[in-house]
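worker-03 picked up job from queue 'complexes'. Input manifest follows; six sequence lines, order preserved.
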Amino acid sequence: MQDSLQFSVNLDSPIAVYVQIENQVMFAIASGRLSAGDRVPSAREMSTMIGVNTNTVIKAYRDLELMGIVQTRRGIGVTVTDRAFKIATGKSMQMVQAHLREAVGECIAVGLKPTDIRSAVSAAVDSGIPPYASN
Amino acid sequence: MQDSLQFSVNLDSPIAVYVQIENQVMFAIASGRLSAGDRVPSAREMSTMIGVNTNTVIKAYRDLELMGIVQTRRGIGVTVTDRAFKIATGKSMQMVQAHLREAVGECIAVGLKPTDIRSAVSAAVDSGIPPYASN
Amino acid sequence: MQDSLQFSVNLDSPIAVYVQIENQVMFAIASGRLSAGDRVPSAREMSTMIGVNTNTVIKAYRDLELMGIVQTRRGIGVTVTDRAFKIATGKSMQMVQAHLREAVGECIAVGLKPTDIRSAVSAAVDSGIPPYASN
Amino acid sequence: MQDSLQFSVNLDSPIAVYVQIENQVMFAIASGRLSAGDRVPSAREMSTMIGVNTNTVIKAYRDLELMGIVQTRRGIGVTVTDRAFKIATGKSMQMVQAHLREAVGECIAVGLKPTDIRSAVSAAVDSGIPPYASN
DNA sequence: GTGGTCTAGACCACA
DNA sequence: GTGGTCTAGACCACT
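worker-03 finished. Artifact:
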């Protein structure tokens, strides 16, 4: 369960690429697709997988290390820490629900009715976007 | 109905301030709080209201003008065009629903269950966020 | 008291340049040469002053911001926060005393006598190295 | 007197591991814990003792050999040369005193008073850190 | 092959 | 002018 993980970023998003990477790794941990001790794709693997410069990935991994979510060891690689699940879940849930509220707020601001919003959400939920993707 | 409009931006948002301004104006138009012919707050008013540099507002208004949503006339100010409602509604609906889908996608990515998502949305809808705000 | 500050780095030091920059800024705050509200030299000024790439300085400033020592605002600059003195003093004192202990430990390891060590320290203290410099 | 020597490295130190190893060997020689003709722990022994890859130790020994401090002979191992004491003492004293001066300089930079520095040094000296350790 | 630092230079957002 | 992100590529340390 620690390989064949999918990551991708949206270069047109206003969200910085390295932040998207951080989020995706946190999401993968929060959802259990990455567990304590698992190796995160190496910076070079990740950078070719998602099509960005290696340094961008390294920046994301460094941030994740400062957050206590991963541990990096020279010559070895980057692994998920024991505290990662707790930290990642906390941050992810908070962030994701904030985004939800924001999105709903926008819907209201443009004049969508509660019914419209709810059905749009249902459609999105059912369209069953596979459990990866974020940007 | 064209004054006493509220606008605000979130300087910590990853979304560029000038984009937030454009969105808020479009939302106001799409929701009917601003109609064809109404004056949009002058760049100076707007900049002091939301606490950013005037140039940033000017940039937003220039963009809106290029989109055909507002019109700038010397000595008169910036006013909402006749086509504005159609354009703003189209863009806003599209954008806002995309954000909703994205937010739902993130919820799924972190492992939230459809039930959880639906109830979070209901809570947000009911908390009745007043019909402005976006960032 | 907020200008004409001197900063310099030692490119031959095993300590990463961006870490040296972070330390020097912390030292300047801990010693009162930089106070809450003061502007830190802009990344570009700093980079030309000490002869390194601008990105290296930006990396240091970003770290300092994550530590809560400075605040950066787009288009404005980097300023010292209110909590900076407390944080910087704590970290600096700890770091600097650790380095002292380490250095003393090395002296002992090579066989220097306590007397020798003490007189070497006195010499260093008296040589009155001006209150900047660190590397 | 040539065995039961303790070596250790700090993987979190900004000083390269192979440099730490070189220093510790030099310190051991300068302080007389290792003398001309003594065998230095084999690269394998050393690497398991301090918990790093054998190649890292090999690199340190190669450097020490280039400095004329040790000699590698097939089937015999790595031994301390006759010139080792003179070389190691020279380099160690120089390095160690430079570190002391640097550490004192940092203390001054953060605003410590000469009295504080002297008493911190005395404490460190008295705490009688056993004659190994360096990093 | 793995992570880490640094450079030089481009482009963006904000004042 | 100020900070921020990204690229491409060099060089280092460690496995």
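worker-03 released lock.
The mean pLDDT of chain B is 91.
Chain B is about 55% helix and 5% strand.
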